[in-house]
Amino acid sequence: xxxxxxxxFPFRIDPRTGGxxxxxxxxxxxxxxxxxxxxxxxxxxxxxxxGTRVHSLVHEPADDVTADLLRRQAHxxxxxxxxxxxxxxAHVGHDQGELRLALDYIHADQPVGGQLxxxxx
Length: 121
Known about the structure:
alpha+beta; 3-stranded antiparallel β-sheet; 29% strand
């Protein structure tokens, strides 16, 4: 896999250069995964199929059924749009009344793992 590189997320100015901040490597893959999970399905005008329905479940009961739906929707989006990683575990937890989706993953071409926790508010 060529090294991932692109504009940093969230968008910011690099104070050292005064230009747009860039991210590379594993950090860029992690940022792209976060963007995928936080994008609502249909939100991108030129790519309506990109994103997840995770946000549509935020006001559902915090039970096992909702947790299973969250895991499944996140997994389907990752399988379709983010082929640079493989999800090894998806867990939905509760922290002070807030749902959190935690994805454990490994990079598809290197034995390097990571975890991304996304608050669902």
